[in-house]
Each structure stands twice: as structure tokens, then as C-alpha cells.
Fold these 2 entries.
Entry 1:
Amino acid sequence: MTGVVLSLALTGCLQDPNPRAGGTGGGEGIAQGGSTDGDKVVTVLGAFGGDEAVGFRESLAKFEAESGIKVEYNNSTDFTTIIKARVRSGDTPDIAIFPQPGGLIELVNEDQIQAVDTYLNYDEINSTLIPGFLDAARVNGRVYGAPMRMAVKSIVWYPESYKATGKPTEFASVQEMQKVGEELSADGTTPWCVGFESGPGTGWPGTDWIEELVLRMWGPDVYDQWTSHKIPFNDERIVQSFEEMDKLLLADGTSYGGRKGILATAFGDAMNPAFESPAKCYWMRQGNFISGFFPKPVQAELDTAVGTTVFPPFEGGFPGQPILGGGDIAALFNGDDPDAIEVMKFMTSDKFGGEWAKKGGWLSPHKTFDGSNYPDETTRSIAEMAANADVFRYDGSDLMPNAVGGGTFWSGMVDFTSGAKTAQQVADDIEKSWPQ
Amino acid sequence: MSAATVAASGPPTTDKAQTAADPKRILVGAVTMIAVGWFIGNGFLALAYYPQWFAVGMPVFDKIIQALLAMVLGIGGAVLFFYCMNVFVEGLPGRLGQFLMPYAWILPGYFTIGLLLLYPAIQTVNYSLANEDSTAYVTPIYKNFQDVFADEGFTRTIGNNLLWLLIVPATTVVIGLLVAVLADRLSPKGESISKAMMFMPMAISFVGASTIWGFIYDYQSGDTQIGLLNAIVTAVGGEAQSWLTIDRFALNSMLLMVIVVWLQVGYAMVLLSTAIKNVPEDTLEAARIDGASELKIFFLVVIPQMKGTIITVFVTVFIMVMKIFDIVYVMTNGNFKTNVIANMFFQELFVQRNAGKASAIVVILLIAVIPVLIYQVRHFKREEAER
Amino acid sequence: MSKVVDTEQKRSWVSIIVMVLLCILWLIPTFGLLVTSFRNIDLINGSGWWTGLLGPFTAENYAGVFTKTDMGTSFINSFAVAVPATIIPITLAAFAAYAFTFLDFKGRDFLFVTIVAVMVVPAQVALQPMLDMLGPRGINISGQYVSVWLLHAGFGMPLAVYTLRNYMTTLPRSIIESAKVDGASHFQTFWKLVFPMSMPAIAGFAILQFLWVWNDLLIAMMFLKPQNATVIVSLAGIMGTQGQGWELLTAGAFISMLVPMAIFFGMQRFFVRGMTSGAVKG
């Protein structure tokens, strides 16, 4: 009985449209989150775990010893949901490391995050960072987070056996790759290794393909308009990019396994056929993290077993070399904790990360980072690719609202690849799903 | 335990028609009840706020102490609380006491349910009439429901759920029943082992289950198949298929159902086993002596005596299947026309961040469960009449 | 007499054969996972697990689990969470089930039916309100065991009440009646008669509830602070951002499984025939 009474008493109330963060008011614009200030303990929440968490902790070890600050890092595989839940219940960490800017921007709009220029030397990090990173965390002209890790996506990987074909290992344009691909196909091997499968996230590698093509075909300005919804998702240029992907990957003889194979192959396994002899496919366009998924013997001899080149520009499109990528962005919840600020300063500098770099799987977003920390030539050349790019853009599905970027865009790619919907239909449906 | 022993061990109570109030009982009962309640409540809070009070320094022992304390508080506290409540209520004037007693008994259990499920459920109904972040009501008030029905995949999704409901509960119960009955006939050791094997899928945790079935349905573009199903298919000369993408005759949904049946038979079996043990051996003996065949015994003697539990298991599996989510989410995420209602709910709440629409979906589920409730109520009346 | 013995023997054979078949069928996927957990990740991706039946085997997945997580603490945490979260709801539910079965009161059917109705509500619905209530804005017990005990008690309660009540209706009313006639109070009837007689159902439900709490990921992840992380949460944390290291989870699944299976075996002694038949005769 009491349960019913309690329920009735408490219902009829809607949520407060302006949830206030916990704690009494601080100074102007100081974010009031996190744990107690000045206690030499800083809590950090992030999305990466396992080996990556180990690398992260190792990179902080020296800093902790020198400063006496203890950093408690914890991760959650479901970061985006958990951080929101914790904000709503007032239980925020001192620092949060966002895998995508979207979640950060939402919380900025809820007055949860401290603006970067109040505690970091903005000009200094702006000069050492690869251009484009800080823009991703900019709201109303101020920047709210700084990257502490970089992911490069526009990499074309090829196995050692590819060199034996005598075909070029660097390309001037996407069209050139298309032509070479047709030659390879005529010789009996499908050129592309593609895998979109990823459990509940199946389809996300496909979104990368579309973003790469949009960025190259129409340039960064159109790309920005697209991801911020200043142009509709079903703008005819975007639809054309879909059709370009169709020509490149879905036409007969272009991808190993065809449409069925693409959808059934896990993204982590997509390159395995390339390492067989004879190789069943040659090129894979995927981010730098993928090296951790290669077979162990390949990983052991990475520099000799694989080669990398940058995914080229599109002839007739944007003239420069664009790079699509991502990175974890660190943001400060606890604006008046000097310890947290110290940690942020260190994490976002180009001195951070040497130990993690040595373990592999981590790239610094700073142009000035000491490249000798990287464990192999492959990583170094990827870092160079990013440093030499003309323009860097965040992965589009990370910029779009989660409903699209983590939802309809993914399932749209599945439908498009399977042939269930045409490019126009998919684009129309995704446009319809964009939240108002 | 004979009734005489029971009565002899308790304080003598006069017959139920006692009309006079016993103020001593009332006072003692009420005071002790409140005291116990207060003590337990604060005991638990203390465990949370001041774990250091119960610490002995070694984290291992600390945790064990906490858990033990919880159990003592929880069980001991509950028993004590009920005992005091019993005293209190008995002290009340006859009619009032009799009236209040049942409510007192269901109070703690119902309070927990009320807090954790009823309250959010009612909030959800409230939110289903509101907008995406639940700050204002929408116009028209049923807009969220309109949106749900207008969703293009919605009819297919409902169709899928119906298919699931038709196939899975019945199959699970039948196999579970079979296992419970047959295992009962084996030697105790054989019974333990065979039941353990059927139970193991549940123990393996959800992550393990989805991994292994991924390995059964796996499709590889090349010649080597690492998925069991495709290996068998290619071994007999067929062509490997990407099974989970085939929606003809809802094949992929059926394959997912296989996984759920595989998992849930353990559940059905555990509960049906308890019922089987209740079927008195003498009824079976009597039937055998009369010369009935095993099959007849099964259907005419065993099953009727287990009817209550069979229905319980069926209803609970039915409700579980109504909100089936995890398997669909991990294996296909609703793609390839395998979507189900709970997955839609998840997408709306956590991906689309539309609390209003997500709540509307839950309300639809609640409405859909009404036939089950009506059946349940009818079942009661019949049961009571028979008793 | 010999006729009875003969049919008993015949019966057993059929039972044995069918059970063996079913068990093998049911075991194949689990067995596949076991084999996989002993294989190197490249082998796993390259060939079917049945080809690896004779090796090569490696313990690296298991070693990986132990080096990457603090299994000892996680196990203790899991126990500290699961045992009270199993026992408390059962205790409360048993009292409530008794009332629903043997006491007649106004609104009984309605209240019971709401319990059944509420079973259909997905747990995710309750998470945010609970976070609000248990977190810093509320009574701030989030992160401690107590919050998880409360949540699991609440989520398991409807099923517990439903199952126990339905079981109690099968108990012979005659005993209860005679106890009443002899003057036992409700509490005594419950504690000395009904509760012991319901042990099979209680044990059965205990196995299930323990298992659900032990294997639960979502609630443990959201409501426990990292020092209190359970086995499953620790296992989930092994994976990198893109899911690297999933092969360690195959080993993890088996490590984690040991405890529920042990509980299952331990509880078998409650599944004894004749708990009530003896009472009827005597």
C-alpha cells in the first residue's frame, strides 16, 4: 500500500528543466563538479580500458611521483551514458576524457565544464597541436576541452605481398586507386578488404568511408556544414558521396566477399585475408588503432609486414590533403581544484604520453611530440601523415548528435551496403531522424 | 512436523474472535517494530556511510564483514521486524488486527517493489506524455504514441515480438519440463550432472553466450568457415550463408530465438524441478500398479499435479520474452528486420535521447501485458474455488 | 513386484538416452567456448574451434585475465554483492508470498496482479530515478554495496513473490489449517511450517537470483565504485575502446562461471522429493 501512496505522491512532477550541478556557487564561471578540492587526489573517468588504461597510468607515473598528486583513473565501457547519468545525479569526476566531442558539447551547454582558457595556456597548446583539434571542442567561441590522444583514420594499409604486384604504393587521387583497383581485379584479386560488422555498432566503419569521401569531394567547409546540420543530410552532394562509395567498394570485384562479406566480417578481422598467401585482398582503409587487431605475427614485425599510405584526395574535389581522425578530449569538471588543473596541464601538453607511445596504439595530437617515443616506423609515418595534413577533421559521426552518429547513420550504412535501400533513401531517412 | 508440536512451541493465543484490545501488546509491538525498523535502516546506512566502523584493516576481511553484517541485518532484521509486527497486530482489537495483518506482511516486500519498480513505472507513464527531456508535456498529449506507431519499422517490430512470444515460451517450457521429468528418473548423481549441463548456459553470463553463438553463426567470405553452422553446411556441399542477415521467413529471428531457448531452459528446469519433487511418489506408484503406460502417467498424473508451476514458469518466460533485449542488441542490434520492442526502447532512450518516445514504448508494453494479467486473475478465482 | 521393477528399468533407459542426447546438444556451444578460451587469438580468428580440439592449447587468455584485473578482490566483491542480494529479497518475498497465499484481504488480487504487471517494466527505466535517489543528490549511498543490494532486491522481488506464492498454493492446506486450529499465530505457522516446506522453491529461486546478480553488468557498473567492482565489471573493463582483448573474455566467462555452478550443485540437496508427502502421512 505504501508503495502505491509513495508513487502517487512523487509523480505528477516533471524533471527540472535546468538541473543544477551540486555544490554552492563558486566564482564566475567556475565549474563545480568533481570530488573534494586540494586533497591531492584527482578522479578521472574515461572510456578506454585494458591495455590502454595501463598505458595511460604509466604515462602519469612520473608526474604523480613528482607532484605528489594521486590520479585515480577509471573507465566505463558505456562512457557516454554513464557520464550523463553521473552528471544528473551530481556524482561527477574531476576530469573526464570524452571519446567524442558530442558528449562534451552537451555538457558544456549545461554549464558543467570549465573553459580551457581559464586554466591552460591557450596560445601555447594551440601552437603545438595539429590544427583542427581545438575547434572540435569550441562552443560559442570558447574552447572547453583539449585532446590528449589522437586517432588517424585516413590510412590505407597494405600487406607486404602487395609490393610484389608492382602496383603503386602511393596514390595521387581516389580515382587513381579506382583504376589500379580495376587492374588488380582483372588480375584475379579483389583490391579492398572491408569489414563493417561490430555487434550492436555494425555499420560504423561505413560511416567513416562516407565522411572521408565527403571531406575529399566537397572540402572541409561543406563537411562542417554537413556535420552541424547547416545543410541537410540528404543534400545531393552527400548522396553523390554515397554513390561514389558504391562504385569504389560495392561494385562487383572490388571488395573481398562482396556486400555479404562486408556486413558479416568484423572490422577487426577485415585485413586477415590480406595476410594469407596468396592474398585475397590488398587495401584496407582504417584507423591507426587497427594495428592492435592484426594477427600476432604481423604485429611482431609490423614495419615489414605492412605498409601504410595516406588515403588520397579526390581529383576535382578539395585540392589539399585532408585527414579524418579523432581523439580523446579531456575536460575539467572541477574548476577550482588546483590538483586537477595540474593534471590537465600535464595531460594536454606535448610532454605527455611517452610511456604510452612506447607501448604502441597511442599517438600524440601535438606536432612537436618527440617521435622517437613511437615503437615503430609505421606509427611514426602515421604521425607524420597527420602533421603534414592540410586539414584535420573529427570523425563526422562523432560530431553529429548521438541519435544519428551512433544510431541511424550506422543502420543506414547497413541498409545501403546490403542493397536494401538506395543512397537517396538512406540519406532521406537519416535526415528525417536528425533531432530538432 | 506435526501440528501439535507447532502449537506447543508457541505462546498460547486464544481464538481469533478476541475482540478486546491488548494495550500492552500494542505498545510493545509498536515500539519494538519501530525500533527494529529504525535500527535496520540505519544499520544499512551506516554500512554505506561509515564502512570504516566495520573495518579491521584488511580489505578482504572488511568486505566479508560487510556482507555478513548485511545478511544478519537483512534476515535477522526482517524476521525480528515481522515478529514484532505480529505482536503489535495481534494486540489490536480482533477485527482491526485481522484486517491489518496481511497488509503488514506484504509491506516490506511491496515497499521495495513500489520504490524500485512501481514508482519509476508510474513516472514513465507520466513521461510518455512529455517531451524528450521530460520538462514539459507535448501537444497533442498522445504525440509520442503517434510517433511510435508512425515509425517505419514498427509493424515489423511488433510482428517480431509476436513471433517470439508464440515460439519461445512454449518451447522453453516443453523442453524444461522434459528435462525436469527425465532427470528426476535418473540416479541422484546423474540427475545433478545432467541438470547442471542444462543449467550451464545460464551460468556462462551473457557475454560468453553471445560470443559462442557468434561462433556458431559466423560467416566468412573465404573458404574456411569458423562458424559451426556454416562448417556443417559446407561439409555437406552447401553454400555458406551469412545467417543473421537472412530475414526470409524470419530465419534470423528464429536463430536468435534458438539462443534464448538454449539459455532459458535452465531457468524453466530449475523451477519445474521443484514442482516435480512435490509430486508424491505414491500417486505414481498407484498409476503404475494400475498398469498405465509411462506416457499416460506423464500426461495424466504428473502434469496435472505440476500445473501451478508450469503456469508460473510459462507466464514468467512469457513476460521475459516480451521484453527480450540483450540478445537482439548484441547480435544484430535490430538490423536485418530482427528488431524487437525493447531494443526500440533502448535506441530511443539512450541513442535518440527521446525520453518521451521511449516511455511511450514502455507504456505500450504495459498495455500489452494486460491480457496476461486478466488471465492471471481468472486463474486465481478458479484456484481459490478449487482449494 | 517384479513387474514394477521391470518397468522401472525400462523407464530409466529411455530417460538416460534422451537426457544424454539433450545434454550433448546443450553442451556443444559451451564446449566450443571452452575450447576457444584455450586458443590463441589468431587461431580463433583463422579456423573453427573444432579443428583445435587436439591443440595447440595456450593458457594465455586465462593468464591475461589474471594479470589485467584484480580477480581476488573482484571475486570477494561479487560475493559481497550477490549473497545479501539473494537472501534479502527472498526473505521479504517469502513473507509477502505467505500473506498472498494464506491470508484473505481486500485488494489482494489487485495488489498481486500489479506485481505481475510490473515484471514487464525494463530495468533501464528505473536506473535514472534510482541514480537520483541514491546518488549525491539523494541519500548518497551510491558506490557502496548497499545501493546494489537495494536495487537487486527490488528487481528480483516481483519474480520472487510470484514464484513463491504460486509454489505455496500447492502446499497441502490441511496442515496449515490444523496448525491454526491448534492456535498457532501466523508468524509461527509461517516460520515453522510454510517456510521449511517451501525450501525447494526457495532454493530454486535462490539459485536463479544469485546467478542474475552475479552476472549482472549494468547495475554493478553504474552503482559501485571501482574498489567494489564485481567480477563481471572487471572483465568488461579488460577490453580496449574498440573491443580489443575480447578473447580474454572467453576465459573470463569460465572463471566467472565456477561460482554459480558451485552454488547450483550446493543447492541440489534442497531438491529432495517428499518434503510435503511426509507431512501428509504424518
Note: Chain B has two domains: 15-127, 154-338.
Entry 2:
Amino acid sequence: MDNKLIVSSAPHFHSRESVPKIMWTVALTLVPAGIGAIYFFGLRALWLMVIGIGSAVITEAVIEKLLKKPMTVNDGSAVVTGLLLAFNISAQVPLWMPAIGSFFAIAVGKMVFGGLGFNPMNPALLGRAFLLASWPTHMTIFDRAVPTGGTVSGIDIMTSATPLNVLKSSQAVLANPQDYSAQQFTDATMAIGKLYDSLDNLFIGRIGGCLGETSVFLLLIGAAILMYKRYIGWKIPFSYIGTVAFLSWMFGGAEGLFSGNPMFHILSGGLILGAFFMATDMVTSPVTFWGRIWFGVGCGVITVLIRQIGGYPEGVSYSILLMNLVTPLLDRMTQPKVFGGRKRV
Amino acid sequence: MSVIQEFTKGFYRQYPVFRQILGLCPTLATSTSVENGLGMGVAATFVLICSNVIVSMIRNIVPAKIRIPIYIVVIATFVTIVDLAMAGFVPSLHKSLGIFVPLIVVNCIILGRAEAFAGKNGVGMSFIDGLGMGLGFTFALLIVGSVREILGNGTLLGIPVLGAGYEPVLLMLLPPGAFLSIGFFLGFFNWLENRRAKSQSQ
């Protein structure tokens, strides 16, 4: 690149933003939630994050060395991928799991397609999906993930699961009362009541769950910085969260339509982490105004479908992966009309 | 082309799975273990050789307009023989391959060879062609099956090879594992071909 004279067509805007600057900022905004994870789940959380980041960076460096591609590990995107992957696993998975997950995320999720900017899906979520499909038992045990400082409620089953797990199993009892004893039925009703009463714990993060998803408060600090810097827009997160809130309010309750608890569904699981930090990934989300709105709505619909009807208690990661795949179609569908041009034919 | 060339084209130049991208459905479905892959490969090879020979024998009396249905009837005959023989002698393998044994009837490698080769060439050459292509297909199933069985189950032909501490990658036994491993093999063969083309052009 010794030719300094770059000739290109208009517009000749220059932006002071660059990939490394954006990526390192995103990494920094995840730090509060990372510190929260160490506080809630102990020092083991730190090791999982370090291993996740280290494996992602090393994988990218080795592949670029082998393929004789320009070295891009300094741009911070591998760090963000590794950290987000660690945020998406339970605190007591074996230590090799974030290493394998980050390797898969970078190697198959990103480098196979040609590196940053060419990946059709969010690499960190692909890594999580790989881990969840490969070692489902490790990925869905949260019993030692019971955080210091409190539990969701005093009921025993609470200690072994995430709030969404409890909700799913309790709702199964309520839906088929003939299969369970009267005692189990009352327990399930009580469990749901206690879940809905513990919104403050959900907000602060004193619940079982994946490392980085539990504390809504700490995640929102980072998200606010990103929104202030305009690295993420409001369209995807707000349409996503709004759709989840509306649909779980409409269909989430046991007593017919509009009896659900939307606040519980917003605060639990990985929705906040997913909506602000992963659905908004610049590479894998649409660029047009309406494309972004539909992207968020689609994520919300799939999330609620999985939470209410599907087999898994949580559907944020799969909903974002699925919508990543239709991103090119959304962009094409919502292409804006050129100013002064004719109507789209 | 010589006999040797007709035989070896099934392994590289016209490799059915990795070069012509034919026969992907059985490769994806039955490569969960070496045993399944071998069973599928041998069954398909038998059908391929027999159908190639018969199609080549009758090539001059088959009306061109209805040749495809006639080929299918020939192929289906041998598939039925294989199906019943496997059910009788290796019932467990027959059960684990399931619907994919009868589906050999519509295997595109077999119909492809009947249409592209056996319908135009002599009996001897058609036999060699079927043997080469069939063994190439079996080899593809074998290597994909080995990768998936070793990673997904920690075993090779049922014998543990990765030690007791190994936690199998369940994904490799699921459909994504088949797509992933076949994708990497396809990439490898493309890389080989690119290198060959580059060294030839120089």
C-alpha cells in the first residue's frame, strides 16, 4: 500500500471511527458485566473468561499465520468474541470448554468465511450453539452457579436452575395438572409467584445463569455507553425487547391472554445481553432502518416461541443466529428508494 | 482411456462425492460410524457394478426415450437383492441404515454412471467403471465416517481410541457434524485441485 492517493467515488466523508476503536470499546463496555460475573460466581468465572479470550486470539493468529493473511488480532474482534462466548456459558463448565468453543467460533464461525466482515452469523453465538449441541449436560447444569448473596426464592428447586428453567418446569405442571399431585401443583404456582416477586434480584443479577447474562444492571451500563457513542442503534434492541415484552405479556400467562409478566421475561435469561451486545453486531445485522426493526421483531418472536413452546427454556441465542441468516434478505427487502428516484419496481 | 484410468478416475478426477458432489444424501446420512459407512459403501458398490454391467449389456436394445425408467427397474432389482440379503445376514447393520438401503435406488451416482458411462460403453469397461466409482464412494464414506466416529464417539469401528477421559463431541454424530466434515473435505479437495492447476499452468 505505497499508493497514498486513494481515488474513490463520492461521497467523500471521512469517519474517525475504525474497527479496532469500535471493537475495543465494545470489549471495555463488557467489563462491568465481567466484574459482576466474578463477584457473583467466584474466581472461576475469571478463568473461564481468560481462557475464552485467549483461545479466540490464539486461534485467529494461528489461522492467519498459516494462511499468510494479514494479522488482525489487534483489532479486538477476537477478544470480543472470546469474551461473549465466555459470557454465554455456565460458571461450572470444565475449563476446556471455553477454549474449544472459542476455537470453533473463530475457526468455523469467522475465518472459514474470510475473517471479520464476511461471517454470516455471530461467531460467539455459533460457538455457544456448538457447545450446547455437543455437550448438553455440561452446558445446562447450573447447580453450582447459585450465586453468592441470595437465591431467587427459598424453594429448593430454585437452587438448581435458572429462573427460566424453573418457569418452564412450573408451567409444564400448571398446563397438565392431571399428571401431578395437588402438592406439586401448589408448589409450581408458588414458584411462579416467587419468580415474579424477585424482579429486583433479576435486575441486579443474583440468580443462576450464564456468566455474563445475569446482571441486567451492569449490562445496561455498558449498553448505555455504546448507545451514547452511537456504536449500536436503538432499533434492534428496542424492537427486540419490545416484541418479547408484548408477546410474553400476551401469551405468557396461565390465565388466558394478556396475563403474562413481561418484566420478568425482559430481565431473565440472556435477553439484555443478546439484544444490546449480540443482535446489534455490525457484521451480521441489517443496515436499513426497517431491516433493523424487522430483525429485532423476528428475534423477539423466535425467542418467545422457544421460551413458551419450544424444548429449551431460553431461546435468545438461537433466535439471533436464525435472524442473522435472513439478514441479507431483510436488507434487500427494505432497500430504501433513492431520493428523487422512481418507485421500486 | 486405459483400464487403469477408468478405474482410478473414481478416486480423484471424477471423485463422486468430493469432486462431482454426487451422492451427498447417503454420505450425510450414513457416515455416523465407520461400520455404517462401510455397509452403505459396499451395498452401493455391489448395486453399481451389477447395474452398470446389465445396463451396458442391454444398451443397444433400450429405446432412448424410456431408458431412465428401465435403468431404475434394473437398479431397483439389485437394491432389493441387497436389501433382503442385508436383512437376512446383518440385521443390526440393516436396521441402523434403515431407509437408506432402499434409497440406493435413487442414488445419483448409480443412475449417473448408468446414464453417463454404462449406456455408452462395453461391458468390461462398465464393470471397471462401476468398481472404481463404487470403491471411491466407499472410501469417501469411510473417511467421513472415521472422522465422525472418532470425534463424536471416541471410537473407531467400536474400539475406544481416544481414552476414557475423552468427552465425545455429540455434534459430530448429529447432521451438522456431517455437513461440517464433508465441507472440510470438499475444501481440502478444492485446495489440492487449485494447487495442481497452479503447478500445471506454470
Note: Chain A touches chain B at residues 94, 108, 130, 133-136, 138 (CB under 8 Å).
